[in-house]
Amino acid sequence: MSLLQLFIIAVLQGLTEWLPISSSGHVLLAANYFTLEGRDELLINAVSNLGTLLAMLIYFRKDVLAAIAGGFELVGAGFRSAPLSRGANLALCIIVATPIAVMAAVSYEVLLPETLQNQLRSVWTVAAATIGFGLLLWWADVAGGKDRTEADMTLGHAALIGATQAIAAIIPGTSRSGITMTAARALGYERTEAARFSMLIGAPILAAAGLYGAYGLLDAETTGSVVTLQDGLIVALIAFGSGIASIHALMTLLKRMSFLPFVIYRLILGVGLLIAAPIMGLI
After folding, report:
1. pLDDT of 205-231, one tens digit each?
2. What is the 3-state secondary structure (H, E, C) of the chain?
3. Gyration radius from the chain CA atoms
């Protein structure tokens, strides 16, 4: 692939990973336009997650360090009677939010035939998911009271929010961040809290996806892949820069407004895809 094509894919990944508009859907569309399909598209998409993950870890470094320290605290929690610290509670929430999504992602890769995977990654699927889950985000954002914070997070809520990542792992266009923010808003969490927790619980999934992509690109030459590990690392590096900008913009916007701009964008994009796909030959 050319450097320009890699740059476009990386910027798209970095900008859209943390916004509730589906990074996989955007990268999939760009990759299809560049005739990068099947396993090649999946791997370059996966390895780019390493860059956006690093962006999140740096931006929320205080929360990340607290969760890491809390993880060590959890190891010895059975030998002490004191209540868990905020970091330990956060680490526990991240842990219980992860398993279902990981199992879904592994099942998708191992159990689903490649032909079915390709069908799920079609433009029609992206368009339908973009519209449908966009409307769901709008409903969750406007319905009911929304003033809960991390201090109100229960393990049940964390598990439920984390479980929704399984949908995004299977259906491109869903948006992992979007579906988890939707679940958090539906459970009554304040917008910035919903966004922050969504990003933090995404760390294990993105790390696993990124390492899977990097491993898959290691043997690119023997498998006949058109993308290489070097291509993947370039994408990850660029995605890191755009990812930092995306997180900052999202957290700033959510302090001042609702998710409505993202919902409108999803509706326009989804309808646009339904109209343009047959014309542009993206089917």
Report:
1. 889 888 888 887 777 655 556 677 788
2. CCHHHHHHHHHHHHHHCCCCCCHHHHHHHHHHHCCCCHHHHHHHHHHHHHHHHHHHHHHCHHHHHHHHHHHHHHHCHHHCCCCCCHHHHHHHHHHHCCHHHHHHHHHHHHHCCHHHHHHHCCHHHHHHHHHHHHHHHHHHHHCCCCCECHHHCCHHHHHHHHHCHHHHHHCCCCCHHHHHHHHHHHCCECHHHHHHHHHHHCHHHHHHHHHHHHHHHHCHHHHCCCCCHHHHHHHHHHHHHHHHHHHHHHHHHHCCCCCHHHHHHHHHHHHHHHHHHHHHCCC
3. 19
- Which one, of 185, 237, 186, 201, lies nearest residue 47 by Cα? 237
Write down the mean pLDDT value for the chain: 87
Q: How many CB atoms lie within 10 A of CB 241?
A: 14
Counted residue by residue, the chain has a size of: 283
